[in-house]
């Protein structure tokens, strides 16, 4: 495994703030070995019906032959049974997921090259039912037409056997799909993304329950380093939605979560509320018909989840004043959904969390949050999510990155289990949180 800088948490700022806009880190993955897991074979209803029908028709013909003392004739599969006309045998194809309803408790984990059953057990032992994994298209299909599914096979198999529902966040086009060869943006031809998603959803039909289409596309680094464009993203989302729903109509398709930047420069970042407005404005609200949910990232920095620009309950002085610095930023996103006539749609918070003391430059604010604060804030955030009624699922950022990255990496202090897998106070508190 190689780890490079990439996309999960940003230290964002307004121009008047003293803190620097920080470009954060990504876990990248080297090309895996190619062991293959056997595909699951579904036992179809047709096979059962066919077996019982053959027994019924054979019995009927045997009785007739004994009565007439004539040579028995081969059974006719279309002949009526003793109880009436023959049942029509209708082949049943592969079965997708059940529609999701209720509230999802989730954790984002890193499962590549890990002991997946152990990671899945950490999630389920805490009473959580969902696990999220980022899937980098560029890593899976570095060569066009030759995807390597080996690591994802292991991840899906382990999470499924652990009784978890799976959310895949699918990002980063391969170099072969972009003229500039840069992999952190969308493909030049959005249809290529649809082709990949069709293959992904088909392979894991009935096992992956939700797909998040891209990640933080209001941040230039996630959009190819070029100008940020909400309309281009909606077009990509439309192709992804069609591809995924054609394979399984019940999977949840989530519009890629936006990062709360508090910054407006199309070459760097666009404020998440403004960007969501632009998404809804594009083609008279096309967005409403090409996703099942709106994704969001809710940061808290060094602020409790109930605080906001007009409420300060802690003594820290940085990251104050702008709505982007608070968990309740999600209320601004929700307001845009309502004003756009999309209030029936739910919001999925696909990343949220609080840092603690750390060694990463730009994340010094984590020193303001004790481990007890982190635990208390995460629990309260889930309580808020349940209370508001329009949030469908929430995913803690993150479960196990302390087992993956060094303590100088900004992802490290967000983790809720230690390097050896033992719980931090946040994990214990979340385990104790009532889930029903």
Written account of the structure:
With 436 residues, the chain is an alpha/beta fold. It has helices at 45-68, 116-125, 137-140, 150-161, 190-203, 230-247, 272-281, 330-339, 371-388, 425-432; strands spanning 3-4, 26-27, 104-108, 130-136, 165-171, 210-213, 252-258, 293-299, 346-353, 391-396. The strands form two sheets. It has an eight-stranded parallel beta barrel with strand order 3-4-5-6-7-8-9-10, surrounded by six helices. It has a two-stranded antiparallel ribbon with strand order 1-2. β7, α7 (272-281) and β8 (293-299) form a beta-alpha-beta unit. The two termini are 38 Å apart.
Tell me which oligomeric state these chains represent. single chain
CATH class of the largest domain: Alpha Beta
User: Tally of extended strands?
Assistant: 10
Largest sheet, strands/sense/barrel? 8 strands, parallel, barrel
Give the strand line-up of the largest sheet. 3-4-5-6-7-8-9-10
In CATH, the homologous superfamily of the largest domain goes by the name Glycosidases
Question: What is the succession of H and E elements?
Answer: EEHEHEHHEHEHEHEHEHEH
CATH topology of the largest domain: TIM Barrel
CATH architecture of the largest domain: Alpha-Beta Barrel
Cα shape: globular
Query: What radius of gyration results from the CA coordinates?
Result: 25 Å
Terminus-to-terminus distance: 38 Å
Unreliable spans are 1-73, 79-87
- Give the DSSP E fraction (strand runs of 2 or more residues): 5-15%
Proportion in helices: 25-40%
Number of domains: 2
Class by SSE composition: alpha/beta
Tally the helices: 10
Average of per-residue pLDDT values: 84
């Amino acid at each position: 495994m190689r780890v490079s800088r990439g996309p999960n948490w940003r230290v964002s700022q307004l121009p008047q703030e003293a803190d620097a806009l920080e470009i954060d880190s990504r876990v990248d993955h080297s090309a895996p070995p190619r062991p293959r897991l056997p595909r699951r074979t579904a036992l179809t209803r047709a096979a059962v019906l066919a077996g019982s029908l053959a027994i019924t028709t054979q019995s009927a013909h045997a009785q007739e032959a004994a009565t007439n003392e004539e040579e028995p004739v081969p059974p006719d599969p279309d002949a009526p049974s003793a109880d009436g006309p023959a049942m029509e045998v209708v082949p049943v194809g592969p079965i997708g997921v059940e529609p999701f309803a209720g509230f999802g408790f989730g954790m984002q984990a890193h499962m590549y090259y890990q002991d997946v059953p152990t990671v899945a057990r950490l999630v389920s032992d805490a009473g959580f039912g969902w696990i999220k994994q980022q899937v980098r298209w560029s890593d899976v299909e570095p060569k066009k037409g030759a995807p390597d599914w080996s690591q994802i096979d292991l991840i899906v198999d382990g999470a499924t056997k652990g009784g978890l529902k799976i959310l895949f966040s699918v990002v980063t086009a391969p170099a072969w799909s972009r003229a500039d060869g840069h992999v952190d943006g969308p493909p030049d031809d959005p249809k290529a993304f649809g082709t990949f998603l069709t293959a992904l959803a088909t392979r894991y039909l009935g096992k992956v329950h939700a797909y998040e289409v891209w990640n933080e596309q209001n941040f230039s680094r996630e959009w190819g380093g070029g100008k940020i464009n909400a309309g281009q993203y909606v077009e990509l989302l439309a192709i992804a939605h069609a591809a995924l729903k054609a394979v399984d109509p019940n999977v949840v398709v989530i519009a890629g979560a936006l990062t709360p930047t508090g910054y407006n420069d199309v070459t760097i970042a666009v404020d998440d509320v403004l960007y969501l407005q632009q998404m809804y404005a594009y083609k008279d609200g096309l967005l409403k018909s090409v996703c099942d949910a709106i994704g969001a990232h809710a940061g808290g920095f060094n602020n409790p989840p109930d605080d906001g620009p007009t409420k300060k309950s802690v003594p820290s002085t940085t990251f104050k004043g702008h709505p982007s610095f608070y968990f309740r930023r999600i209320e601004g996103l929700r307001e845009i959904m309502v004003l756009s006539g999309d209030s029936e749609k739910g919001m999925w918070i696909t990343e949220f969390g609080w840092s603690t003391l750390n060694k990463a430059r730009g994340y010094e604010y984590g020193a303001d949050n004790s481990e007890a604060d982190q635990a208390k804030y995460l629990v309260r955030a889930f309580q808020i999510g349940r209370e508001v009624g329009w949030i469908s699922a929430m995913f803690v950022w993150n479960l196990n990155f302390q087992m993956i990255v060094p303590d100088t990496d900004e992802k490290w202090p967000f983790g809720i289990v230690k390097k050896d897998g033992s719980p931090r106070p946040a994990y214990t508190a979340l385990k104790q949180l009532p889930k029903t």
